Amino acid sequence: MDQAIIDREQAMERRDFDYYEARARDVILEDITSDEDNATILQRLRRQDTSLKILNMSDSYSYFDGNDEDNGWFIVGEGDDLGWLGYFIGKSKYLEDLCIYSWGEGENIIEAFMEGINHNQSITRLSIDADLGDVNFQSLSPFFRNNNNLAKLEFSNFEVGLECAQRIAFTLGESQCQSLKNLRLDDCNLGEEGFAEIATALRIQPQLSDLYLERNNIGLMGCIALRDMMRGWRTSNLKRLDLRGNFIGDQGLQELVTGIADSALKELCLSNNLITAAGLRCLSTCFQSVSCCLRALNLYGINFGDEGAVALADGLMGNKSLKYLDFDPDESNITDDGWAAFSKLVCDPSSINSTYHSNHNIVRIGSYHDDSTPLDIRRYLDLNGHPHPAMKKILESHPDLDMNPFFQWKLKLLPVVINWFGSCRSRNDLGESIQRQSLQNRELSAFYKFIRGMPALTVVAYWQQFVMNAQAKRRRIDDERRRLYYDEEAAWLRLGGRPRSEGNSNINLVRGAKRRRHE
Question: What is the rounded CA–CA span in Å between residue 101 and residue 76?
Answer without folding.
Answer: 10
